[in-house]
Specification:
The protein has one domain: 3-Layer(aba) Sandwich (Rossmann fold), CATH 3.40.50.720. It is globular and about 55 Å long. By secondary structure, the chain is α/β, with parallel strands linked by helices. The chain is built from eight helices and seven strands. 42% of the residues are buried. Strand 4, helix 4 and strand 5 form a beta-alpha-beta unit. The protein has a seven-stranded parallel beta sheet with strand order 3-2-1-4-5-6-7, with helices on both faces. The longest helix is centred in the middle third of the chain and has 29 residues, at 105-133.
Length: 262
């Protein structure tokens, strides 16, 4: 196994977001929570959006932000959203592991609703305000599965591939108006979503749960560990800096060289 991740004592990226507002979806736990905390530390006024209202309020209270409970799979909720933010981080996601012939169509539709349609709807609402200010940052938490496929995750991989395409269109339209859009593509991150996959992967593949991380999740990366949420958050922070203002339409991998050999 490689070296374990040691979080720095202070933020690695020098970033001042005083006066900026940020919306982070799926921000009550995992990557979203780490991103919300990092942007708040930089001075942004952060809105924590999550399906779990109690957890969203707890996370928002901890950083002095605002909480927004929302089910992004619900058309009525999507229709009622009012979004104004200088920074949008599309992170909310869910997973279902099954062979295609056993994959429930309604589950497939719900995953695409949350992970592809909702980001489109949210960015569509946020862009006019960004354009008016001449500054905006859209960061889409994609995945190595937005660039490559693997079996038993038809909906997740379809959504992430679609998100990659949406990201490029946002970048092309927003660039002349001061808005950048990028995807971050991590390998398996130490989050509740990934932890919840272990039993599903074990059942689907017919292997013990204790073998899933070693034989499924860490087979491809050259660096044999999970990504930590704080590492993803620090890359989000960098994309909000002036030094990153020419990075747009990109898919930035954090995969321990996994896609280098695929």
């Amino acid at each position: 196994m490689g070296e374990s991740y040691v979080a720095p004592g202070t933020a690695a990226v020098n970033l001042d977001l005083t006066g900026r507002s940020a919306l982070v979806t799926g921000a009550a736990s995992g990557i979203g929570k780490a991103v919300a905390e990092r942007l708040s530390k930089a001075g942004a006024a952060v809105t924590v959006l999550d399906l779990n209202g109690d957890a969203a309020r707890e996370a928002a209270e901890a950083i002095g932000g605002e909480a927004l409970q929302a089910d992004l799979s619900d058309d009525g909720v999507l229709d009622s959203l009012e979004i104004e933010a200088d920074i949008v981080v599309n992170n909310a996601g869910l997973q279902h592991v099954a062979a295609i012939e056993e994959f429930p169509p309604e589950r497939y539709a719900a995953i695409l609703k949350v992970m592809l349609e909702a980001p489109f709807r949210i960015v569509r609402l946020a862009l006019p305000g960004m354009y008016e200010k001449g500054w905006g940052r859209v960061v889409n938490i994609s995945s190595v599965h937005g660039l490559r496929a693997s079996p038993y995750k038809a909906a997740y991989i379809s959504a992430k591939h679609g998100l990659e395409g949406l990201n490029k269109v946002i970048a092309l339209e927003g660039g002349p108006k001061g808005v950048t859009s990028n995807c971050i593509c991590p390998a398996y991150v130490r989050t509740p979503l990934v932890e919840g996959q272990i039993a599903d992967q074990a059942r689907t593949r017919g292997i013990p749960e204790e073998e899933v991380i070693e034989k499924v999740m860490l087979t491809s990366p050259a660096i044999k560990r999970l990504v930590e949420p704080e590492e993803v958050a620090e890359l989000v922070a960098f994309l909000c800096t002036p030094d990153a203002s020419f990075i747009s339409g990109a898919s930035l991998t954090m995969d321990g060289a996994a896609t280098a050999q695929w």
